UniProtKB/TrEMBL annotation:
The modification 4-aspartylphosphate is found at D53. Keywords: DNA-binding, Phosphoprotein. Residues 134-162, 230-249 are annotated as: Disordered. Residues 134-155 have a biased composition (Basic and acidic residues). Pfam families: GerE (PF00196), Response_reg (PF00072). It comes from Paraburkholderia monticola. Residues 2-118 form the Response regulatory domain. This is LuxR family transcriptional regulator.
Length: 249
């Protein structure tokens, strides 16, 4: 597994690297202290996932995430930040982040969060899930109810039949959660864009949701894991349409 850490604080990068190495002894870590270094790594390296801080010396908050996803649309990005405002978390989800881990998390919670995201799960702060559901004006409250309850944790990876999905719908869900827009998913799956959009509509109807951001919140709330993100090739990303800023598909 190859992971890129983009954070300007050397001490935090070292601590996160130590935690990641404890969890995954064979992990290969790359470091960047600025957004430009991070983007350069992303454009050249085969990677599974990126941990991205928002407060970078050459990046303006969510613009850093937008730039990274523009450069590597298929590369999953987990924001790890000291900013715990619900509006910031919501914006990052809209910009196709796969999850959000607060830096204030105690070591045990941070360890659980990192283990979840590296197994293909979505992690959001437990205290923000209910608020995110309300802000997104979903038809029903998150399954966990009160804000102070922790998201559920599943040890196993989910599959298509377990979730009541066809294999193609499940594959679409996996790519959607990792941050690809519909046109890029279509290229990955060798399908027409209109076909992928139909799959996305089926997924949203299946979960009684309206857009991708609600899917992310639902998956985080239920602790669903979709499998370890595969190594992504920057050369393939260069052939994909840009991720853009369209939060629905």
């Amino acid at each position: 597994m190859r992971v890129l850490i983009v954070d300007d604080h050397e001490l935090f990068r070292a601590g996160l690297a130590l935690l990641l190495t404890e969890l995954f002894p064979n992990i290969e870590l790359l470091h960047a202290s600025t957004l430009s270094q991070g983007v350069n790594h992303a454009l050249c390296e085969h990677l599974n996932i990126v941990f991205l801080d928002l407060d970078l010396p050459d990046g303006n908050g969510c613009n850093a995430l937008a730039e990274l996803k523009e450069s590597r649309p298929s590369l999953p990005v987990i924001v790890i930040s000291a900013d715990e405002r619900v509006e910031t978390i919501s914006r990052c989800i809209q910009l196709r982040a796969m999850g959000y881990v607060p830096k204030s998390s105690p070591p045990g919670a941070l360890r659980a969060a990192i283990s979840a995201v590296l197994a293909g799960g979505v992690f959001l702060p437990a205290s923000s899930i209910a608020s995110l559901g309300r802000d997104m004006d979903t038809d029903k409250a998150p399954a966990n109810g009160p804000e102070d309850r922790q998201p559920r944790v599943k040890s196993e990876t989910s599959n298509a039949s377990e979730m009541g999905l066809t294999p193609r719908e499940f594959e679409t869900l996996v790519w959607l959660v990792r941050g690809l827009p519909s046109k890029a998913i279509a290229l990955r799956m060798g399908l027409e864009d209109i076909t992928v959009r139909k799959y996305i509509s089926h997924l949203l109807a299946h979960f009684n949701l309206r857009r991708r951001t609600e899917l992310i919140v639902m998956l985080a709330d239920r602790g669903i894991k979709l499998g370890v993100p595969p190594v992504t090739d920057p050369a393939l990303d260069r052939s994909l349409p840009p991720a853009g800023g369209h939060p629905t598909h």
